[in-house]
Amino acid sequence: MSTTSFEAVAPGSALPAIEQAPVLGVPLAIVDYELTLDWIDAAVALGAREYLCVAAVHTVMESREDAALREAVGGAAFTVPDGQPLAWALRKLGHDIEGRVYGPELMDRACARAARSGLRFYLYGGRDERALAQLAANLRERHPGLQLVGGWSPPFRALSDAELDEVVARIDAARADVVWVGIGVPKQEKWMAAMRSRLDAPVLVGVGAAFDFHAGLVPQAPAWMQRRGLEWLFRLAQEPRRLWKRYARHNPRFVAGFARQWAAHRRGHGRGVGDSR
Q1: CATH of the domain at 156
Q2: Using an 8 Å Cβ cutoff, are 55 and 82 in contact?
Q3: What pLDDT digit, counting tens, does each position of 148-159 carry?
Q4: Between residues 62 and 238, which one has the greater pLDDT?
Q5: pTM, two decimal places
Q6: Is 11 within a domain?
Q7: How many separate domains does the chain show?
Q8: Is the pLDDT of residue 173 over 50?
């Protein structure tokens, strides 16, 4: 996929349009890592106020049942296909996409670029403050010069109005360019949608498990399993009690739902938003 650099943005410019296509009703961006990072740079340069979602099959399937999540994902500037099956689905529908844009890899590449460009990052999420501190230490060690200007691991409950005000004050005081949000689906998408208008930071990005991976708390699947779309199997083996219901419920329904969408597409009169349930 060819990319265009948006690092130098003229005053008054608009953000570049990103091509999108729906998979089971969820619009997914036809992008690669460089195009996504270029877009983030452009949004920061323009002082935009946007957020990006990073979707796996879980996000797509939950969006079909959770109206608030569906609205939050729909309100994003765009949603990248984090799951390998979603990249395959887009390709099956005839779109020119090289592969998925994996959230942890996107975050790591963004840190490498920011260590050179000087973009300021804030970390919101993590299991607890100790895990967040380890994440920050690991990122700084891997990317010398990276400006991590703050972070907070919120409690696992709804925040009070006073706590939300404090979050806004903390992030705005840090003068962050990008806020990386790692509190899991669907909380992070709903949090970004609710907080977007209140925060000065130009870009928010929800990356879920990337915090745990980069903090070294949870191992990532081997590259060969990721390439074959078997990351879910590796994660299931790591956290069976937490994840078995998710995969047992969503994976078969995704396969069946996309099979209907693809069949409609092949017949030449598909609606492009997926079949009904």
Answers
A1: 3.40.50
A2: yes
A3: 999 999 998 899
A4: 62
A5: 0.88
A6: no
A7: 2
A8: yes
